[in-house]
Automatic annotation (TrEMBL), chains A, B:
Gene3D superfamilies: 3.40.50.20, ATP-grasp fold, A domain (3.30.1490.20), ATP-grasp fold, B domain (3.30.470.20). One of its GO terms (cellular component) is cytosol. This is N5-carboxyaminoimidazole ribonucleotide synthase. Belongs to the PurK/PurT family. It comes from Nakamurella endophytica. Pathway: Purine metabolism; IMP biosynthesis via de novo pathway; 5-amino-1-(5-phospho-D-ribosyl)imidazole-4-carboxylate from 5-amino-1-(5-phospho-D-ribosyl)imidazole (N5-CAIR route): step 1/2.
């Protein structure tokens, strides 16, 4: 309890953009997020006053941090379960628990558990590293799986992957051999069929220790090269019953895995079959605010960062209604370092974006520039979906690349484009 | 320019709630607000990492602060004009300028200038302190003004008043004598007729150095005991032509006084007359984010804090459309220290508010408790105005007093009240 404000203190392990935006939400609730960051230049450390520097792998640092918080939660999945269990054993309140978080940390454990719960997942096979004698045996296992389930095969590292790193699609035994010779050492692997998905969806919910849960509308997520580039809320032309099934599924996962905080369930939209009776299969789980719900910051009565705080504080949850017919989120990814717009400063980019699209909401993370890095996102709300998608795409690309993909120039057209109606 | 982010740095003089909420908005723009605060426990100092401690009256402190900012702006009106001129003379960019800010600092100067511009104001008389030999002469002047303009008379200190402190309504010569004997010394005064207003309005706009301006919908502000308790956006049943006139008037003031940043024009809604051809008279001006536009944080595409930043950075301004048919803001004022709810902690208050009204947005300032002090505000958006007003009032009172004015108890009714539709 902060004696100055009479309010509890939430601590977040990890100083990335999720912590940054959680701090923004904490301010409204009368609080200030306490952050354990690795570097003083981390995204959240640039904007929050109460930052401890330390590694999420260092139990002593975690303990010292937790001692100054009423609740501890996470910006990422990388805190070892044993450390979290130690904190809990020491009397600290930590959400989500180590037991829940396991299923967001390890795709092998997650696949197994969801299957046990009868939740539809792609056909898969876990290949634990200590179950194979070496690369050759991995090749044999993948080849056997491919023969059985059909090629291509999706090979994933069980732990540590993100933004598509740690996910490979292999077409045949030769490709498997090429991939596996790069492993040093061989990690735990999950093999999956390449799902004939028509698109990807996400069902995001929040759940409190009290057991209350609230779901946002189901969204469509668009990935390119394994990384999310766009989210459309709600998912266009998703039949009501499929949307309801997706939400039910996410609520079931939250309940059965005893998740506290935001839970994002990444889904594949697939043909109805016995392996996917509702036309849905779970891809993976995230137990923290998630990219697929960044749209809620401007598009919903309660944004995911506030909701995550409410959940871990065991406050009743906020309304999750959309505030506009459509919201489109575009991820800002750092463009090529030698691209034609590389010389355009971020300041100029924001300036010209504001000039062209006065209705686009910008969220920048203060992160150093690196090609492909997530530097921010934009949201735009309204009623004309095609137009919103155009704006979000153009805006995100411009902020990332310094290039308007449609050739727009601020010199030629000094006037703003009228905003979409609401 | 911040070398880490490639973005300019805005510094705000004053560490109150306006700086706090401006920091929140700065985060989205990739920035972190630099704050000059008097105390480490100031509202903004609790949530921003880059705080200098110092007085806004100390020119050396202001100079040192400005040297580390690309633009300096203000959380309040109390920085002496000469100090601001010194900063500008030293090459610092300061918005609004001393010349503009004068009209928000001194009601006598403001009344005079607006009259000169032909903008309707209440009938008034300035009584400069060095124009009167002592209290007796003040009584004579007020009595003469009352005889002329009619009783009661509104007596205001020209400078330093806020939340109705520094504003008195006197009914007759005896009351004037009582008031004036309390003055020590006699301040510069403005005498005004008591305007037969039907209600109060505010027209809030923002303007950039480039000259671009954007206006939010005109709102109704409700004051009790001289302090704003509620704002309704847009002002109910305001005829379109009167709303347009109010907006035009605010844009004219912004333009003619060369205001940069947010400008709030407090207005009286009065019968049409030769002294008020549009049924409007200006009460006062604020040149910073203002209580009458707190609703924009949840109720408009662009909130006033972001817009103020855009304006002082000379970025193009954001859209000012409302996101819902109605938004109601309720101010949270500290209740009596010995009231029946005084023992209910702020944490419990937030908790129960969330339980009862999951659609109400809370904004708390982290300020120490004091009866009558503005501790925060709530916003609620939707389509049923009467219901929104009920929710905002009850919520703000509950947060301030620890008492539900309608007797609701969380024990009896554990379920939330369904939110208003949008
Ligand atoms: N079995 C599969 N069939 C088809 N496509 C798949 C399959 N598994 C993964 N993908 C594709 O690869 C993307 C990344 O996979 P996954 O979400 O497992 O990896 P990640 O690196 O953990 O991603 P994230 O950034 O979401 O954490 C998916 O969004 C999907 O587009
Ligand atoms: N001439 C007038 N006639 C009628 N009512 C008046 C007049 N002047 C002021 N008032 C009332 O007193 C309130 C406070 O006046 P004013 O805005 O001048 O004071 P303030 O202390 O500067 O307030 P603020 O908190 O807005 O800065 C007004 O909102 C209005 O309700
Ligand atoms: Mg994924
Ligand atoms: Mg006023």
């Amino acid at each position: 309890m902060d004696s100055r404000t009479g309010l509890p203190t939430v601590g977040m392990v990890g100083g990335g953009q999720l912590a940054r935006m959680t701090h923004q939400a904490a301010i409204a609730l009368g609080q200030s997020l306490r952050v354990l960051a690795e570097h003083p230049d981390d995204s959240a450390a640039l904007v929050a006053p109460d930052v401890s520097l330390g590694s999420h792998l260092d139990l002593a640092a975690l303990r010292e941090f937790a001692a100054r918080c009423d609740v501890v939660t996470f910006d990422h999945e990388h805190v070892p379960g044993d450390h979290i269990r130690s904190l809990a054993a020491g009397g600290h309140t930590v959400y989500p628990s180590a037991e829940a978080l396991r299923y967001a940390q390890d795709k092998a454990v997650m696949r197994q558990r969801l299957s046990d719960l009868g939740i539809p997942v792609p056909r898969y096979l876990v290949v634990p590293s200590d179950d194979v004698t070496g690369p050759d045996e991995v090749v044999d296992r993948v080849t056997a799986f491919g023969r059985d389930a059909g090629w291509p095969v999706v090979v994933k590292t069980a732990r540590g992957g993100y933004d598509g790193r740690g996910v490979w699609v292999v077409r045949d035994a030769d490709a498997v051999r090429d991939l596996v010779t790069g492993f040093e050492p061989v990690p735990d692997l999950v093999l999956e069929e390449l799902v004939p998905l028509s698109r990807e969806l996400a069902a995001v919910v929040a759940r409190s220790p009290f057991g209350q849960a609230a779901a946002w509308p189901v969204v469509e997520t668009v990935q390119e090269d394994g990384i999310c580039v766009e989210v459309v809320a709600p998912a266009p032309e998703l039949p009501e019953d499929r949307a309801a099934a997706a939400t039910r599924l996410a609520l079931t996962v939250a309940h059965r895995l005893d998740v506290v905080g935001v839970l994002a369930v990444e889904l594949f939209d697939v043909p109805v079959s016995s392996a996917a009776p509702d036309g849905l299969q779970v891809n993976e789980l995230a137990m923290r605010p998630h990219n697929s719900a960044h749209w809620t910051m401007d598009g919903s009565v309660t944004g995911q960062f506030e909701q995550h705080l409410r959940a871990v504080l065991d406050y009743p949850l906020g309304r999750t209604d959309a505030v506009a017919p459509w919201t489109v989120m575009g991820n800002v990814l750092g463009g090529p370092a030698d691209g034609p717009g590389a010389a355009v400063s971020l300041d100029e980019r924001v300036h010209h974006l504001a000039a062209r699209f006065p209705d686009v909401k910008v969220h920048l993370y203060g992160k150093g520039y690196r090609p492909g890095r997530k530097l921010g996102h934009v949201n735009v709300c309204g009623s004309d979906l095609a137009e919103l998608r155009r704006r979000a795409r153009l805006s995100a690309q411009w902020l990332g690349d310094g290039v308007w993909a449609d050739g727009w120039s601020s010199d030629e057209a000094a006037t703003a484009e009228a905003g979409g109606d609401r």
